[in-house]
Amino acid sequence: MRNIYIFNLFLCLGATATRFLERNLAYKSPFLDAPQLGHNIDNLHKRQVQHVRRQMEDAGIFEDEHYVTFYGSDFSNSPFIWSGGLNFTHAGKMLGDPFDTSVLLWARAAPLPSSGSSKLPDQSVPVCLSYQVSKFADLSGPPVDSGEAFTSYDVDWTVKIEATGLQPDTKYFYRFSDCTDPTSTSPIGTTRTLPRPDTAADNVNGGNPFILAVFSCSQYQAGWFNAYGYAANFVKPDIYIHLGDYIYEGLGNGASIGRQTLGRELATIFDYRQRLAQYRTDESLRAAHLSGPWITVWYVADNAWKAGTADSNDTSIGCSFSPSGACFTDRKLSAVRAYHEWMPIRQVVSNDKLRIWRNFQIGRLMDLTMLDTRQYDRDLTDVSVIDKLVNTISSYENRSLMGAEQEKWFFQTLSQSQARGAVWRIIGQQIVFTQLNLSGTCELSKDAWDGYRANRRRVLDHLYGNKISNTVILSGDSHANWVSDLAYPNDTTKYNPISGEGAIGVEFGGTAVTSPSSFGPISQPETVIVSQAFVAANADLQWSEGFYRGFFSLKVDPSQLNATFYAMNDIASANLKGFATAEFIVKAGESKLSRPVAGGTVLAGALKS
Ligand SMILES: *[C@@H]1O[C@H](CO)[C@@H](O)[C@H](O)[C@H]1NC(C)=O
Ligand SMILES: *[C@@H]1O[C@H](CO)[C@@H](O)[C@H](O)[C@H]1NC(C)=O
Ligand SMILES: *[C@@H]1O[C@H](CO)[C@@H](O)[C@H](O)[C@H]1NC(C)=O
Ligand SMILES: *[C@@H]1O[C@H](CO)[C@@H](O)[C@H](O)[C@H]1NC(C)=O
Ligand SMILES: *[C@@H]1O[C@H](CO)[C@@H](O)[C@H](O)[C@H]1NC(C)=O
Ligand SMILES: *[C@@H]1O[C@H](CO)[C@@H](O)[C@H](O)[C@H]1NC(C)=O
């Protein structure tokens, strides 16, 4: 059976010897125009081919380490592949960045040592995976797309494939298997394609609401990632969105809840890979990755800006903070490389600064615009050592959060979205947009748009000036929930906080999956008192909640959008206990929260009215 299988593969190859490496996007540079940041596939291929020569020469005792070749008769130019068994180490595979006819598939498969042997399998032999995509849950019938790709230790045994030729707005199932043993497979995962950009809003998702689930700030040592599992089981989103801090670079201390982080503070690519691998052992996170496509934007390290993070930069003292002595730029490249290996994000067209901002047209129902308000080109944020400095410069006109290129692209994208007749403009980005000023009790966070006030004003100018409607900003980072109408900060002449008249959109800021509350370790009733003060002091802020960890969902249809905020009961153990704390409605065309806000009742936090 095995021989026949391999023979069949030969028939459909007829390919250049490196195509199995090329098929795996993990070998490529994260950035299309920076090939130097990828692997040199020709060199990898040459190295792999060395194994053939080794066994044809008189090099001592022949040792059968379970290699089979993969290229038929051309032994001069073909590496052996590993056939000693594979371990699909991260059973919850993932997929992401769906388009209308393609989606990224991801898996990790490491060679297994021979049974009873403590010897590590030969790490320089490539592993070959085949993948199948089908419309049927049992993968029956001819696959819609299928193929083979190599992976190796060079990319931490990850494989990232673009499955193509798919139909728009359709659900698919997929699986990876060992090319040398089709009975050794990964679990079956589910994904979907997006509708075509010109699909009428009413026809998107067969006329059903399109559901997004939105997460941020998942810190392993702070708790179990129950929010992901809750979403996978009870919300069943069409797309999972992660707004940053998917992993944390610090170690913390999670021993008391059985969540001790491995390794050390992240600096090298080894560190980042190990951390990502550990995070992905969480069952709830696995379940979420198996059940739909993800669209994500960076983490790299705490309070990152274009030239540093909270405790590192490229100065000699800045480099001394890293456990490995790696300076900020090296650390950033390690983070980016590992991110592209482990996360299903597409290589992007970039001519500068590691661009990941991008736009998804989901029929004429919505544009989902993902910004990078962290790494791309933002000026100095409030790194701890120079906090007071940022306080004084936060209102400088010449400070930028997005960088000029991204800002220009963002404004064009908003205008084009309205011009093409998309009902909703959903903006996924990392940090809180609305002004949150609780003077005396709680300083403005300068790591949010409050630290870049001129940039925020320009966004609002663009929305008001061009009468762009139905804009919904999503944010993370703050470890608390904030729901606001979008309007100029503290401007009650144009905007009426009671009726919402004069607003130009809505912001939904979500709490952390596990990271501790920004309100501090206080009781639930105490957080409500803080929230009451927040909503009283800030005109645009309509709901504040600072006790629960969780996430929120958006159910989007052409006439309205429902946002539901979920709280997890207990993150000190793995469980799926949670409840909805508040639901908000935005009616298409109104560009504000529907009144009464949240139907007038919430189960946590404080409403303005
Ligand atoms: C497969 O990998 C997982 C995760 O690294 C590990 O826990 C497990 O022991 C491995 N299985 C075998 C048979 O080596
Ligand atoms: C660089 O980092 C060091 C150590 O945190 C700090 O003392 C210094 O002020 C930082 N410089 C800049 C420009 O961020
Ligand atoms: C930015 O603006 C501030 C205040 O107007 C000014 O002091 C500073 O020199 C400007 N910085 C640059 C780089 O132009
Ligand atoms: C809002 O503006 C008023 C003056 O118009 C000022 O007194 C108040 O402190 C401001 N509040 C906030 C939260 O910025
Ligand atoms: C914050 O609120 C205080 C008190 O209400 C006010 O004095 C201050 O100007 C406000 N800050 C900003 C940036 O609006
Ligand atoms: C949105 O909320 C309204 C009011 O609670 C409800 O009638 C409607 O069914 C909800 N829509 C969806 C898609 O859940």
TrEMBL record:
Keywords, alphabetical: Signal
Gene3D superfamilies: PhoD-like phosphatase (3.60.21.70), Purple acid phosphatase-like, N-terminal (2.60.40.380)
Residues covered by the PhoD-like phosphatase metallophosphatase domain: 212-565
Keyword check for Nuclease: no
Signal peptide per UniProt: 1-17
A Pfam family of this chain: PhoD
Protein name: Alkaline phosphatase D
